[in-house]
Amino acid sequence: KDTKEVLRALQASVDVFFLFTMSIIIFFMQAGFALLECGAVRSKNTTNILIKNMLDAYISGIAYWGFGYALAFGEPDNAFLGWRYWFSEGIPDEKLSHWFFHFVFAATAATIVSGAMAERCEFIAYFFYSSMITGFVYPIVTHWAWSEKGWLAVGFGGVGYQDFAGSGVVHLLGGTAALVGAAFLGARIGRFDDDGTPKPISGHNVPLAALGGFILMFGFFAFNGGSQASVSKSGDGLAISHAMMNTIISASFAAFTALLAKKFGPAVYYCDRHSTDDWKLLSTINGALTGMVAVCAGCNVMEPWAACVLGLISGITYLLWSWGVEKMKIDDPLDAVAVHGGGGLCGLLLAPILKIDGIIYNPSNTDAWLGFGVNMLGAVAIIFWTAAISAIIFGSLKAFKLLRVEQELEIRGLDVPKHGEPAYPSEAWGDGWSAGHIN
Amino acid sequence: KDTKEVLRALQASVDVFFLFTMSIIIFFMQAGFALLECGAVRSKNTTNILIKNMLDAYISGIAYWGFGYALAFGEPDNAFLGWRYWFSEGIPDEKLSHWFFHFVFAATAATIVSGAMAERCEFIAYFFYSSMITGFVYPIVTHWAWSEKGWLAVGFGGVGYQDFAGSGVVHLLGGTAALVGAAFLGARIGRFDDDGTPKPISGHNVPLAALGGFILMFGFFAFNGGSQASVSKSGDGLAISHAMMNTIISASFAAFTALLAKKFGPAVYYCDRHSTDDWKLLSTINGALTGMVAVCAGCNVMEPWAACVLGLISGITYLLWSWGVEKMKIDDPLDAVAVHGGGGLCGLLLAPILKIDGIIYNPSNTDAWLGFGVNMLGAVAIIFWTAAISAIIFGSLKAFKLLRVEQELEIRGLDVPKHGEPAYPSEAWGDGWSAGHIN
Amino acid sequence: KDTKEVLRALQASVDVFFLFTMSIIIFFMQAGFALLECGAVRSKNTTNILIKNMLDAYISGIAYWGFGYALAFGEPDNAFLGWRYWFSEGIPDEKLSHWFFHFVFAATAATIVSGAMAERCEFIAYFFYSSMITGFVYPIVTHWAWSEKGWLAVGFGGVGYQDFAGSGVVHLLGGTAALVGAAFLGARIGRFDDDGTPKPISGHNVPLAALGGFILMFGFFAFNGGSQASVSKSGDGLAISHAMMNTIISASFAAFTALLAKKFGPAVYYCDRHSTDDWKLLSTINGALTGMVAVCAGCNVMEPWAACVLGLISGITYLLWSWGVEKMKIDDPLDAVAVHGGGGLCGLLLAPILKIDGIIYNPSNTDAWLGFGVNMLGAVAIIFWTAAISAIIFGSLKAFKLLRVEQELEIRGLDVPKHGEPAYPSEAWGDGWSAGHIN
């Protein structure tokens, strides 16, 4: 009997260890987002985007501690929100690792938005929307989807919402907020011609963007695999194994689809074999990320071939969304809407189809169709909720003229006027090789 | 019975796994320090600071293997030092993971100093002080504080020294050595005017510094959480959970305090609402790091609200120390003294006050006051020991003219004359866009 | 009895957890290789080398999923290859973590080659050889060495091939393919004078290269420690402990040997104390990596002093190979042949000598000599197999003029013509400080 208790305690210890290890790696995704965004902006707005990404972690630390966790997982709760553990007051000891895991997720959700609003958003506006997302918008949705009593988790007719690692809860939510934010904010000066022709604005540093991509991939394995939240229970190992393997398979096929579609798409479209485009690194990175986002929803219950199909579809999805957002004259410097919104929606809707025993295995399975319905409802609910609150947040900020920096400031860049810290101060450069540098 | 043994063996395996995973992540903090320092120096001294940070890991590998661990944890030992396991000779197998964990800590302690001495320190001097710190100065202090018989660990009247993850042992020690080193070395040319007015010298690369900050935060979770050194024992899970959660809470509040105090401090001081400063990224990073340093001492036995208070105080602490060091005309390019020395001292003294059942819970608890006394004594001992040995090391190096590079070399920068490797060789640049690059 | 089963299940869970954690960290080595290579090329070929490194992960994801794992670990199998689990069809659930671990290894093997072929290799050629290595060349060798029935694993007279983490299987293989590839490809324009004098071509970014080095070191601990593949079995803890400790000791001594030999080697050679060279960062990084590569083969069964000896030898090995490759007029921008080929061969041959109960412990032990013979045979087999297939691959590509870009393109750089993405677009720069930037 004593042995049994020791064994149970060890199981709990291993789960705590698992959750913290995965959380630490997921936390590092903050650096991935920061560098991806840093590389995608012009050098004059580099410090600005970096400080926003860094503060995301700390705003989340405060807002999620104060309010977020209480709304998401506080008990007593109802189908819509929880209501306890404000400032972690009264939280049971064994829930602290759960708190930390969900804090790193909240920090991730917040950071998606900053990319879409880069290079022109007021610092104060950023504080406000970032706190609102991590402290309010996101926690409510996690309660719906991931707490025992949440209305999506309960679902209908015994069939619940399938969103293992958050294609909807994290990415569709972040992508929706990014879309609304970018729409209210308006495009950067020079992003569209007077006649509306889009003119790409290059980021200043491809290696930093690529490093950001690598860090995000590193983190995504923990994000998807860690979503099982425990490793000692029966079935945990299999779910985690599926999640990890499907993540790389979906990412690989999505990356190649995006790469090849970008390269040969125009030639196919114009039926002209000379109209090929380039081999684009940034499309490859974004394609891979979209594949990883899309696989979140069902990665624990999908066979590898299904992850392959999902990857192929999500790679195309990314390009279509990217094209569509631009067509709407919305300026999203990071393609955050396409990657997270487009990829998240794609994954959420395809999970009930492609998952084991899903629609594709047995199209007459009514439970599978019900699952599809629940996921679709979840998608609609997340989009509406997020868009509505975001419209209020960004609309108010705009009404009070707190949303966007002045035109002169935007042209000059935000780093020096706002932060007094140019990213690459010219007086600190010079390689010292030439004798002329002696003074 | 057989089952019990298997269970015990599994507990041991899980602990070994825990220790190595945390150690690997802590090791990566070397990259964090390297980039933070690299971003904070001028481009002409970039290779120089990178090679020093890289060698820190290898100097530690050799010095800690040869001498450090033997002095810190060799048995037989007395209250002041251990005396066995030189070059890991005779070390029991089950202590190897312990060795590795303490090696990564030693490497961290050594690397704090290089920032304060950047851009003007001789390469040979660096070898010497770095070996001395990891092979001698630091191991002795860890013996005092973290070995069973150490005089600080034993403490007085049954109350021992509270320094869970090393606010004192690692950071105050590193900060003290950095202060003494920077004082003996003198300020960089141009850092202070002839009349003593400080003139900031900008680092050359904010994105690299920010990435360094992110990596350090990533590593700090393992540094603080991993300090429990095991996960399978009763109480481990709770201690680790507290450590992790308190780390992000203290960091978040410290980051915001530093950000806001830097921005609005001058306005408050001059009672003039137009005298605000900028939103500083580097202050935010250093504030967060100071919060993480300060929480080391008591993060395992602190409630989240206490970590919040500690964060608020340590954010201010950082700015005051930074200002104080500059007032003393000491040139610390990385603010290593303020972050590690100031933050470490702050954490060491506040831990006995803020920890559960500490002074603030019951001011008439004599054991709590005794704990405060032991920690204060520990702080004094660490400062004196480190300062004394550092003064001998840096004083001797200065006397033999081995401490500082010649003036002409300093102006020219160290990368080319010392390393033959400019960080950004001009002949390797050119984006190839313009036709002119064809030859 | 029930307890026993739960315990066994927990052991399995812990091993799955261990394997995935190590795998995630090993995956991050992709970023390390990418940055090391990115820093070592000129800015005009930066995007090109980054996209190759990024695609390595995804090509591996597809090729290893489709064919690699089936050839390496499919059952039924014979001494030379496996033949099942194509596209993971029919793979048992408990092997999925094994699949993932070997996928990250395969991705590492592929990525070694791209460095040696940087700045002049066709994109299509890269696709082809990269798929072949991860889908065919590498898996066959892993079957020989690491599957139960493999002929090297079985060995002779009961003595098997000793290559714990792949000095031979991964690094010698990668290094051999790199050598053959670089030889077929020819040197970069300007790398050798008309009279054959080598002229170094500097990379464009030392900090990125150094960060790459740090990431590789971070990953190497998981690479070597994780090769035990489980942590719950008796003896696992000790093997992992040895692997970790020996990795840092070998790296430390190799780094210092390379640093000092580079600095003082010329002075010794010319017997002239004024002929010293510089303190080279890149030699230090490559020296450390060579030490980590060399220790792979025997790190689990070596005492620390032996790792120290191995480090001293491999540091010199690196410099000699680097010199030898250049003498052969082969242009290897990353020294990948010297680090991985030279280091791998050195480790493979020294492991049977230096390991516990190896030749040096008892030179009359015939089993130890037999082990040396098996390892030598393994080295010869890996070199021949890899060189033969590589010659076919690179020879065919060359014959069809698909191997090397045109001269004009090489001079102009690959980023703009091939990818349309200069690494640092000039229009995105400007720090915004000066008023002139307003328009």
Task: Describe, in short, the structure shown.
3 copies of one chain form a homotrimer. Chain A is mostly helical.
Provide an overview of this structure.
The structure is a homotrimer of 439-residue chains. The first copy, chain A, is mainly alpha-helical. The first copy, chain A, has one domain: Ammonium transporter AmtB like domains (Ammonium transporter fold, Orthogonal Bundle). Helices cover 66% and strands 0% of the residues of chain A. Chain A contains 15 helices and no strands. The first copy, chain A, has helices at residues 2-27, 29-40, 46-73, 96-116, 123-146, 151-154, 167-185, 206-225, 236-269, 281-295, 304-327, 336-354, 366-399, 407-412, 415-419. The longest helix of chain A has 34 residues, at 236-269. Chain A is globular. The model of chain A is unreliable at 433-439 (pLDDT under 50). Chains in contact: A-B, A-C, B-C. Chains B and C meet through helix 1, helix 2, helix 3 and helix 4 of B and helix 1, helix 8, helix 9, helix 10 and helix 14 of C.
Kindly report the greatest chain-chain contact and the residue count on each side.
Answer: A-B, 65 and 71 residues
Instruction: Name the beta content range of chain A.
Output: under 5%
Instruction: Give the distance, in angstroms, between the N- and C-terminal Cα atoms of chain A.
Output: 79 Å
The DSSP helix count of chain A reads 15
Average the pLDDT over all residues of chain A and give the rounded result. Answer: 95
Which runs of chain A of at least 5 residues are low in confidence (pLDDT < 50)? 433-439
Based on the coordinates given, report the CATH architecture of chain A: Orthogonal Bundle
What is the class of chain A in the CATH system?
Mainly Alpha
Task: Describe the main β-sheet of chain A briefly.
Answer: none
